Amino acid sequence: MQFYDIVIVGGGVAGGEAAVNLARYVGRKKRIALVSRDPVVYSKMTLSYGLKLGVKSIEPYVLYRPEELRGLGVDFLNDTVKLVDRSSRIVLTDGNRKVEYDTLILASGSKPRFPVGVEGLNLKGVYTFLSFEDMAGIDAVAERGRKALIVGAGMIGMLVADALLRRGVKVYLIDILPYPGLTAVEEELGKVILKRALTLGAEFYGATTLERLEGNGRVERALLSNGKRLDVDFVVVSIGVEPNIPGGLEGLERDPSGGIKTDGQFKTTDPSIYAIGDCASTIDIITGKFTYRPLGILASYAAKLIPQVLEGHHYNGFLAYQVEEAFGALFMRAGLNGAELRRLGVSFSKALVEYRVPGVGITKSLVVVEKGTDRILGWQSVGSTLASYKSKVFEEAIRNGWSLSMLEEKGFKV
User: What is the pLDDT of residues 353-405, one digit of tens each?
Assistant: First the structure.
């Protein structure tokens, strides 16, 4: 039996950064352990670039190695947690370790969601895209001239589609929604994304689901709800993620998404357990409501605050910020989007905003506003040239509760 003052479960960005920040904050006054199934702490945020470029090694993604963590006073335990015994405050692992804790920080991340009731998902050649191992598996089959079906056209699906198109793979992209990207941006921008994807050679089928995969041990065909029957060499499932929560924690309160519900200190309904990253909900700084947003940047923000909240401080909430690049364009958004607002029960409308970019001319982006108050709740932009221009102004507008009229006073045309 090993005892630690603080045990962190999960060696992704949230867990790794939390361990490092705690070690630097408390020095060696407390015993800290990080339990991770991966042999190193690495970033997953830019794996699509690795797929696009054919990167074969995990080295470019490594943030912290075990020896670096141990040098900071963090015991790195390369193992998988199978059960948390809350009554005894003991973590049990697949490697038969028993790790006792005073405080547990859960940073166990997320796992892929799969379509319900679809036959053939167990065939060889069916992949997800959340880890370096996932990337390496797809890289091994992504040969020029092959055909791939991507199920789900959210941000992950679009990033994978773009990488495969650049490598000469024929890409079929489907989504239950009518346009790609609608989990992050509004339909007006989804249409722009679709046009760019089609220009690069992708085939997109919106308002369409996967009904069945067929093949003799390995996937060969896909049957879609629109009646299409596609010959494919491999399939990437990217319909979203759900919280990855170890056994023994079923009694912790969850939010409607299934994420572990936390308070303004990341504390769960068990006072000895905190939760950060993709396994937990966080406070939206605009509405003050809890929402599940599995974004790497928010996981990193939470990890930086862990030393302070363990000392009793509270955080006010996070502003979602997302930047992705696919199909030759940059996609940016800050604040809340329509999909999140619908889940939160907030009525909203949309407005296009025009402004001049020096040397480029007039450009447009989209803002999401609260009905009745015209308060700006979110901003979105898609473009190949300076999509980020004025992003800090829009971020300030969201944080400070500007209305559309205040934006017009700053020289923007609404």
Answer: 998 888 777 888 999 999 999 999 999 999 876 667 788 999 999 999 999 99
SS3 3: strand
CA distances from 326 to 358, 359, 370 (A): 24, 24, 29
Q: Are 252 and 273 in contact (CB under 8 A)?
A: yes
Question: 401: phi > 0 → left, psi -120 to 50 → alpha, else beta; which?
Answer: left
The HSE-up count of residue 256 (CA atoms within 13 Å, CB side) is 7
The helix/strand/coil state of 362 is strand
3-state secondary structure 251-305: CCCECCCCCECCCCCCECCCCCEEECHHHECEEECCCCCEECCCCHHHHHHHHHH
- Regions of the chain where pLDDT drops below 70: 385-387
pLDDT digits (tens, 9 = 90+) for 274-311: 999 999 999 999 999 999 999 999 999 999 999 999 99
Q: What is the largest CA-CA distance in the chain?
A: 66
pTM of the model: 0.94
Distance, in Å, from the CA atom of 179 to the CA atom of 289, rounded to the nearest integer, reads: 28
